[in-house]
Amino acid sequence: MIENKAFKSSIYQQFARIGKAISNSNRLELLDLISQGEKTVDSLAKETGLSVANVSQHLQVLRGSRLVESEKQGHFAVYRLSDRIVNEFLLSMRKLAENRLAEVEQIARKFFESREGIREIDKNELLRMIREKEVILLDVRPPEEYRAGHIPGALSVPLEELESRISDLPQDEKIVAYCRGPYCVLAVEAVLMLRSKGYRAIRLEESVMDWKAMGLPIASGV
Known about the structure:
The chain has helices at 2-21, 25-34, 41-48, 52-64, 84-100, 102-113, 123-131, 143-148, 159-165, 186-196, 208-213, and strands at residues 39-40, 68-73, 76-81, 135-139, 155-156, 174-178, 201-203. By secondary structure, the protein is α/β, with parallel strands linked by helices. The strands form 2 sheets. The chain has a 4-stranded parallel sheet with strand order 5-4-6-7, sandwiched between helices. Strands 1-3-2 form a 3-stranded antiparallel sheet. The longest helix is centred in the first third of the chain and has 20 residues, at 2-21. 25% of the residues are buried.
């Protein structure tokens, strides 16, 4: 009986390593960013507003639990998810939180209600519009994330470049912008900017990872 208890305790201690690694909101954000494509410590620090030292400490915890891995490329260490199952785990955890925690929906509703004109498009309607060439699809994430994987047919127009490139977009067509998923604000800012310039713009809630999880095709490269 004691041996059985020791065995079970040892197993659950290993499971708890994963729980400990993701028990910090900053580490969850880092994992979400890394799921979009390979990232350096400096790029993660810039995206999150954390110090390089703080990001490095969080990454060591994530690497210690085998959720991420790193590779030296020149003078920089590049981090990626250690396995596709980590990405599946992140999606499942998000859905669990959305299903069981009412606060998630309340926070999101309050945020979007304060941003007039933000509308979302159903993925099935978007697929139809893409097939019939009725829409311009914009990926407003950083270029390296677009290269790592994007929805086929999407144009790479990073949010920071949108204002300078907006005149290249035809004003008589509907535009759909997407970024990293339902809680990413890049597409929100893109839609608000486009609508302020007279464009018919809406937001796709799903991320590339959501798209892939639904069995839909993903393109890579430029």
